[in-house]
Amino acid sequence: MSSVANPPIPRSSSCPRGHRHSPPSSQTRRTRLSDSKRRRRLKRKARAAARKLQHIHQALPKPARSLFDTLAGSFTRPTFLRFVVLALATILTVGCRTVCNLLRTLGALAPGHPSSYHRVFSKRRWSCWRLAHGLARWVFDHLVPKGCILLAGDDTVDEHPGEKVFGKGCHRDPVRSSHSYTAYRWGHKWVVLSVLVRFPFTHRLWALPVLVALYRSPADDKKAKRRHKTPTQLLRQLCCVLLRWFRPRHFVLAADGGYGSHEMARFASGCRGRLTLVSKFYPDAQLYEPPPPYSGRGRPRVKGAKLPTPQQVVSGSKRVKWNVAWYGGGRRDVQTVSGTGNWYKAGEGLVVVRWVFVHDLTGSHRDEYFFTTDTDMSVQQVIETYVSRWNEETTFQEMRSYLGLETTRGWKQKTVLRAAPCLFGLYTVVACLYSQLPRRYARVRAVEWVGKQDVTFSDAITAVRRWLWVEWVFCIPGHRAVFEKLSRPFRSLLLHALAPVA
Q1: How much is the average pLDDT of 256-265?
Q2: Closest by CA position to 435, among listed 202, 218, 230
Q3: Tens of pLDDT along 307-353?
Q4: CA 89 – CA 468 distance, rounded (Å)
Q5: What predicted TM-score, i.e. pTM, was given to this entire model?
Q6: Rg of the chain, C-alpha, whole Å
Q7: CA 56 – CA 108 distance, rounded (Å)
């Protein structure tokens, strides 16, 4: 029975002993391509993807295309087209800002192999400095074409899970910490330099990031045999870059108390009037008169007679009442005392400063001491300049909520040093695009409540998302005809689903 059911398969003389012929199949075998044919096929696919990327870029609305074209000099053409696709996908995506999730959002609008988009951050050769230069030049030319440029400098910590993430460290979290409790987070600490811009659709200033630097711990620098730079030194380096790029412009920097050091004040005073620093001051700061003229005998003096500390002056002086701009765009009645002096630190010399004591008459804010390196600034200007620095904290909070600052998952050096700074720059791009939107898109508010007067960033990014869906995605040949056939209520419902309220 076994021999009838399973007849033996005859062996061929050419078949080695112990091997049998495979049973006949109706399906033809798939021939293996040679290396040359495989390369030609990959080249055809790459050329097709490049043509499609070029068509997608040409279909962009004019404001978006003109803004991104100013950044094209930082990349090669293929990398630039993929970078634009990733940037727009980051705006349109709701959720994690990983490259995989961005490609899921666009689908067929991201032609080519997915690895070509991953390599934009991890492998491709392009400069973040040139990218920041192009973005800052666009912001200065279109939003602050004349006058003094107001800057804000601060740092923020974004959490990043993973054991082998480049540049990761344990940093103090200023958001969760208080005077009695200190919270720490594992992640990256970014020093951010932003431009404060007043748009016509809002009362408060918006902080638009233009330059970002990664702070690394002393242990990490020692392990890499690299000179350690404090956050103050990193912010000073970013200011040097702006001063070099835009030589005719004058800047006023409002920085947090951590950057109100004698080193930073000496740097600002040495910029020949091109940079003014406004920050917190010390109640017990050592102030002196200028040194007397050299008498010709002995070593020349580096400081004059000692002056009373700001705290001593405030205790015995009459206070002046002012009504100044305050946090959140409101106004507040305060009492002030001011004075001038030469701030001294051993080994670093004297810095001429004007200090201001501020007492909030409502009692909701503690007493503060501010200073500026420009002695011609009025008391009101010093207070309002420092108060405007808080808008950068609002930017950090909005980036976490609407741009997924802490949702990136890159861990290699190039990816870490590129992904987060690009997200900071994308906040600026969204604000710039919203300022150029047609009125029929810009006037639509995402969320309304009683007493709301200003446009928030959630309104801006929701309007930009819907504008991109309608004027870019649905205007691409093949999509326009289908979208125009939809009824107006269904279009509105579709846009609310694709671009939900942030």
Answers
A1: 94
A2: 202
A3: 999 999 999 899 999 999 998 778 999 999 999 999 999 989 999 99
A4: 10
A5: 0.89
A6: 30
A7: 11
